[in-house]
Amino acid sequence: MSARKTTTLDPPEISVENPIVYSGEGQEAMLVCIVHGESQPEVLWHKDTMQIDQTERHVIENRGARHTLIIRKVHPQDFGNYSCIADNQLGKTRKTVTLTGKPKTAVFRSVPNSQWKDKYNISWIVDSHSPIEEFKLYYRLVDGETLQTHDGIFLDSRKIHHSYAGDNMLDYNRKINSYDSYSYNNGYHNLHHKWSKTDWRDIVLPAFPYSHHYTQGMSYLIRGLEPDQQYEARVQSRNRYGWSDFSESFLFTTSNTDTEIRDLSVTHYSSSRASVIFASEIRCLLGALTLIALCRVGSF
């Protein structure tokens, strides 16, 4: 006699396509959840505690297990947390999707090795539907093999990969210049703090002029670094809706010697010095010729 097969029925299961959806005013936003269940569940969308009904701006679609809330011509009040709620006779399940106007996390585009021993030109790009108003750059000297992130997580620096995407410097420059990059040599930070070598330093960089491009770039020359050392950097971006999350950690290394001319004024000074030496030699030669001429006149 065969045993009867029993089936355990469970509440619906939900997964979200993107837990954070980035958008901007006047843009379209698409929030998607995937719903699975033994019996066909009813799926509703809520913003905070209010149920969302189908309107001209709020379009609710479902194709099989895929349930979509489309928000057309996004308004500032549309930003916030949305719940995808699946309900059947076995139970109720919900997942949250956040619609935000904040910038995405920045991605570094610098080559990992500096050309200088005491400074480094760091560059990154960030996607944002609204113009970036300012950046906050954090950097510090890496002490030993292990580094600690802003989130308190310890990582082996040998397992961190650089975010540079490009086969050579020409390709790197082409990528940066195509993103409306704007370079600054001036930031501001707390000059009265007494730093230890491995403390985080933070520099606030105003993003001016504003760029209305979706992808925005930034470049900053960090000075006063130590030769032949490894540094860790992270960055945040802010637009009118707030600060982005921290970028992933990026590691760069200073050189033990400068590999290019540090200052064009050196060439200028060298040229001036050469001119002075040449003029001095001419004066000496004229003086000698004058003395010879006077000697010949005196001998007559």
Shape: elongated
CATH A-level architecture of one domain: Sandwich
Percent range of helical residues: 10-25%
Instruction: Give the strand order of the largest sheet, numbering strands 1, 2, ... along the chain.
Output: 2-9-8-4-5
Structural class assignment = alpha+beta
Largest sheet, if any? 5 strands, mixed
Give the helix tally: 2
The chain-level mean pLDDT equals: 75
As residue ranges, the low-confidence spans are: 1-6, 146-182, 188-193, 262-286
- The level 1 CATH classification of one domain is Mainly Beta
Give the CA-CA distance, first to last residue. 148 Å
Strand content: 35-45%
SS elements, strand count: 20
Run of helices and strands: EEEEEEEEEEEEEEHEEEEEEH
